[in-house]
Amino acid sequence: CETCSKEEAKYRCPRCMKYSCSLLCVKKHKLALSCNGVRDKTAFVAVNEFTDLNLLSDYRFLEDVGRTADAAARHCIVHSPATKRLLYFLRNKARGCNIELKTLPVGFTKRRENSTTFNSMENKFYWHLKLIFPHCHAEYTLKGVPDDKTLADILKPYIDPVESDPVVCQRLKIYTASPQSDVRILMKIENRSRNSVRYNELDASRSLLDNLKGKVIIEYPTLFVVLKTLKNDMVVLGQ
């Protein structure tokens, strides 16, 4: 067992392939690694390792995608005039800020969970935001983040040694123990081919709005927080 290192392993997690001996250890490993235990149907498989089971899995995955897309197209909300007006309003306001905001059909997870709003009185976006910390396998979702807030202030409750929450600080101790100069904030560049994934490096001292200008966003921004001193496979545009 890779959790308690005491008992003989009986189970293997379909998601992260960790071995466990009991339900208690399964729950512990899910909590420690933020693992949902669901097999990643889109994980890369090399051609020389491809089997009939992988082919069947891909076929069923495509069938599920087709059913989901069809159900989304039939959903009553997608044809609602109020929904269409709201999405048009958000995209129009984003375009006025030099941001290309794209929305997904009903049925997609990002469309369902997106809580981004625009306050006309304040002339300000309140973004739904996702922070991903790859070195700790952790991610956090923020709601109602004002667009004039700097990225440094957004990250303070997570990686600041003094101001961060003790529980979060313990989980992200690799980040809190590192100097702020080592922290990089990256955002994936959309509309690129899968074999040419690149990221933009954002400026932590500038506001969220300034960092999003001139970029394509699908539903809401997802920021990756990485450390310069630790190896990662994210290639920044221009490198």
Name of the CATH homologous superfamily of the domain at 77-227: Phosphatidylinositol 3-kinase Catalytic Subunit, Chain A, domain 1
Q: What structural class should be given to the helix and strand makeup?
A: alpha+beta
CATH architecture label of the domain at 77-227: Roll
Low-confidence stretches: none
Distance between the termini: 41 Å
The CATH topology of the domain at 77-227 corresponds to Ubiquitin-like (UB roll)
Overall body shape: globular
SSE pattern, N- to C-terminal: EEHHHEHEEEHHHEEHEE
Radius of gyration: 21 Å
Question: How is the biggest beta sheet arranged?
Answer: 6 strands, mixed
* Number of strand segments: 10
| CATH C-level class of the domain at 77-227 | Alpha Beta
What's the mean pLDDT score? 86
Helix content: 25-40%
- Percentage of β-strand residues: 15-25%
Number of helices: 8
Keywords: Isopeptide bond, Metal-binding, Phosphoprotein, Ribosome biogenesis, Ubl conjugation, Zinc, Zinc-finger
Organism: Nesospiza acunhae
Protein name: Box C/D snoRNA protein 1
Subunit structure: Interacts with FBL, SNU13, NOP58, NUFIP1, RUVBL1, RUVBL2 and TAF9. Interacts (via HIT-type zinc finger) with the RUVBL1/RUVBL2 complex in the presence of ADP.
Summarize the structure.
The protein has 239 residues and is an alpha+beta fold. The protein has helices spanning 23-33, 52-74, 81-96, 109-113, 151-159, 166-171, 173-176, 208-212, and strands spanning 11-12, 19-20, 100-102, 117-119, 124-133, 138-146, 183-188, 199-202, 216-218, 222-227. The model has no long low-confidence stretch (mean pLDDT 86).
